[in-house]
Amino acid sequence: MAFDVPPGYRALKEADIPAYLAGIPTVAARLGGRAAEWKIREVGDGNLNFIFVAEGPTGGIVLKQALPYLRLVGESWPLPLRRAFFEHQALVTQARVVPQHVPEVFHFDDTLALTVMAYLSPHIILRKGLIRGIVYPRLADHMATFMAETLFSTSDLGQPAAAKKKQMAVFCDNIELCRITEDLVFTDPWRVADGNRWTSPQLDATAVAVRTDGPWKRAAQEFKLKFLGEAQALIHGDLHSGSIMVTADETRAIDPEFAFYGPIGFDVGALIGNLYLAYFSQSGHEATPGDRDGYRNWILQTIEAVWTLFDQRFRALWTKAHAGDTFMPALFAAGPEQAAFTSAQEAYMRRLFVDSLGFGGCKMTRRILGLAHVEDMESIADPDRRAACETRALRLARALMVDGAGFTDIKAVNDTARAVQREPAKVPA
Amino acid sequence: MAFDVPPGYRALKEADIPAYLAGIPTVAARLGGRAAEWKIREVGDGNLNFIFVAEGPTGGIVLKQALPYLRLVGESWPLPLRRAFFEHQALVTQARVVPQHVPEVFHFDDTLALTVMAYLSPHIILRKGLIRGIVYPRLADHMATFMAETLFSTSDLGQPAAAKKKQMAVFCDNIELCRITEDLVFTDPWRVADGNRWTSPQLDATAVAVRTDGPWKRAAQEFKLKFLGEAQALIHGDLHSGSIMVTADETRAIDPEFAFYGPIGFDVGALIGNLYLAYFSQSGHEATPGDRDGYRNWILQTIEAVWTLFDQRFRALWTKAHAGDTFMPALFAAGPEQAAFTSAQEAYMRRLFVDSLGFGGCKMTRRILGLAHVEDMESIADPDRRAACETRALRLARALMVDGAGFTDIKAVNDTARAVQREPAKVPA
Fold it and tell me: Using CB atoms within 10 A of its CB, is residue B384 exposed (0-12), middle (13-18) or buried (19+)?
């Protein structure tokens, strides 16, 4: 193998798994019975790793092992195994504040770049639920909590500078995975790049137009600058609907291997942007027009609730759980100072809102014109219908990135999404 | 000693210096002659270190050794020796782009937290020159170059993300020195804090008013948030007029031990804010009113030139020396895209301008109401005159912090400074 792998690393095969797990007493106890009884299957449909599920008489686990290359592209795109370390660090940090919204970790093996964690069952990937039109009544509530708690607690409002700097030093090394985001999300859709693809020929003219759209390109680079330089909090870094496992009652965010100290809006935007992708994809999944009207509405309600609850909870934490070195509530104890504090909070949340919209727009664009697409759109077999859905999504994405500051609130964004959905989806000139 | 010092560390005494220097061939050669001939003297007037000058028959050097506590306060305030390492790292990084504006380093000793560097002679500390009323015709030119080159080259416009993240991981450890800035510059002047002092009783009411001024306090915390979270570039971190050595022809920035990846405006603001302190202090140094009118004008011209030249050179570097992962000029090659690029530059420089004013205001305020004051003001013997100068400086400082976005350009700031200077300096109600 030509990759830079630590001594002792080897990619486990299905046959290796029982013996490996049997060597970890807590995991063996969870599975129950004898190793020979455990059923092992490889289930990875992601881009980066091997995922094995092991089920025994009393329980199941997931074993996730990093490969030294990007699975989606192949051995030509090497990727550091150390991402397993960053994922583990992020999961542990998130579990401190929202253990109910991340998978429980049972074991981490640095040499094998391998994590053993809870097998989430009967959870499915949120994206697949959104494609099927399943309503998740607690999704907004849970994800608002996940984001408010994880992002606040690692921000300069939620932890002292010394603690933040120590952890930031560690995550500064997550260079290669950040680099993937930098290229694929913020740059490639706006230039000719290997791997870019789109629904062709329907979106050919659109792809050209996007590459020469100065204001849109400027916005993409401004958000990239924020991504590179704004160390606001330990972000998940890849919080789309494929990184969220759901049931009607439970919601857990998985796969934080892209985690680093970056802009809060990147996480919020990833979720909101992917929900808008789901929204615009619905007309591609309707047997007859209007079939998914109710579901479309539910998605918009969910988006509104995600932002509204996130905003409320982040502010509440600021007041109740402040542990940072700036904006200490005690500094603003008197009456007129409280007004200044409130207006500072207002301005802070407003910036997060505009950031979230813009980052959301970046994530939407790259899923239509870049390397990695989403099943919401890809599963629409008819390319004309798919292109119509994608064209509408791109219209909103541009508005979110270029004119984000023009939206007064999340309802206004939803109004624009509805208006875009009603428009005929001609390819833009 | 109760401090956390590495094995082998010892504070050198004057008598130890010749033997130590004789052991470094390049330094011994520079001094010339025999060690017994070298004249050693301790010259430190700073807050943090011992500084020895050694002169031999053919040249001189400075030996700077860190102490494990803050010299200004005493052993009750421990400070990590590792700041010598950060200073050395910063000097080496700055020397890559502006060797003519930093002291040349001959030797670094990690164990002793000790750097041997060029003895700058006949340079004096800029602050002392400003107090004496000496004109430095090349100061603005040189400092604009120092800041544009060092800040651009370490920004996300001037270097790839991977290089930045690697160096940022190192500087994330400079926790304690950053903490001093966080407390002394952004928080203590706006609260009751040990060590705060001011010209009393003249400014007693002012100090109380500042501590209950909601919008001013809000601005201070917003700039602190930027200081904590905006990793724009490797900043000097303490770029006031006491950290700049000058002659009529030469300008060198010294003492970057507070260096870390922070907001660019903090460096620019440190310089501009300290020049405004010098400006408002002049009426305290006049033998007869009006004596320093010409010099006051020169200071304002210098401030205008510092910003104007910095702005020009930073933009020029962006176009000519771009090496970062965002805003690559090739992305904006076509005509209409160039307009988008130019307007992005405009917005970026505008943010730097408003940041610089605000950080400058923070630095001015802390020098009048906080722990560490400046000789510009302290050397005014008559407390009534001093308080009048300080009151005017505080008025501008508040405007820079609270209303910075209201200034169209640096000339407008100078106009306000002139207007403040003309006002009678009553203590604000």
Answer: exposed
- Minimal C-alpha gap between A5 and chain B (Å): 20
pLDDT in tens, A57-93: 999 999 999 988 876 677 777 889 999 999 999 999 9
Is there a contact between A331 and B168 if contact means CB atoms under 8 Å apart? no
Indicate whether B85 pLDDT > 90: yes
Closest CA to B323 of B164, B160, B151, B165: B160
Distance CA A28, CA A38 (A): 10
Q: Which of B162, B170, B173 sits opposite A179 (nearest CB)?
A: B162
Interface test with A, best of B331, B338, B401 (most A CBs within 10 A): B331
Q: Do B179 and A162 touch (CB under 8 A)?
A: yes
Per the DSSP assignment, residues forming a β-bridge with B272 are none
Contact check, Cβ <8 Å, A182/B161 = yes
pLDDT value, residue A411: 98
CA-based nearest distance A362→chain B, Å = 14
Single-letter amino acid code for the residue at A163: A
Count CB neighbours of B126 within 10 A. Answer: 26
The tens digit of pLDDT for each residue in A317-327 reads 999 999 999 99
Say which of B212, B228, B334 has its CB closest to residue A334.
B212
Mean pLDDT score of chain B: 95
- Model confidence at A428: pLDDT above 70: no
**Helix/strand/coil for B426:** coil
Q: Which residues of B touch A229 (CB under 8 A)?
A: 155-156, 230-232
How large is the ipTM?
0.95
CB contact under 8 A, A229 and B156: yes
Topology of the domain covering A14-118: Phosphorylase Kinase; domain 1 (3.30.200)
- Distance separating alpha carbons of residues A32 and A36, to the nearest angstrom: 11
Residue of A nearest to B327 (CA): A221
Domain with CATH 3.90.1200.10 in chain B: 124-422
State which H helix or E strand residue A62 sits in. strand A60-66
For the domain bounded by A124-422, which CATH number is listed? 3.90.1200.10
pLDDT tens-digit map of B159-186: 999 999 999 999 999 999 999 999 999 9
Peptide bond into B7 cis (omega under 30): no
Higher-pLDDT residue of B232 and B47 is B232
Q: Do residues B91 and B256 lie in contact, with contact meaning Cβ atoms separated by under 8 Å?
A: yes
Contact B327 A228 (CB under 8 A): no
Residue B15: CB partners within 8 Å, gap ≥ 6?
A: none
Exposure class string for B47-63: b at 16+ Cβ within 10 A, else e: bbbbbbbbbbeeebbbb
Contact A166 B187 (CB under 8 A): no
Please tell me which residue of chain A has the smallest CA distance to B213.
A337
User: How far apart are the C-alpha atoms of B395 and B409, rounded to whole Å?
Assistant: 18
pLDDT in tens, A365-397: 999 999 999 999 999 999 999 999 999 999 999
The verdict on a CB contact (< 8 Å) between A217 and B332 is: yes
Nearest beta carbon to residue B221 from set A186, A225, A331: A331
Chain A: give the shortest CA distance to residue B329, in Å: 11
B47: pLDDT strictly greater than 70: no
Residue in B closest to A223 by C-alpha:
B326
Report chain B residues whose CB lies below 8 A from the CB of A179: 161-162
* Residue spans in chain B of domains classed CATH 3.30.200.20: 14-118
pLDDT digits (tens, 9 = 90+) for B59-74: 999 999 998 887 667 7
What is the C-alpha separation between B201 and A350, in angstroms, rounded? 42
Q: Which residues of B touch A164 (CB under 8 A)?
A: 228
Angle, alpha carbons B71-B77-B83 (nearest 5°): 70
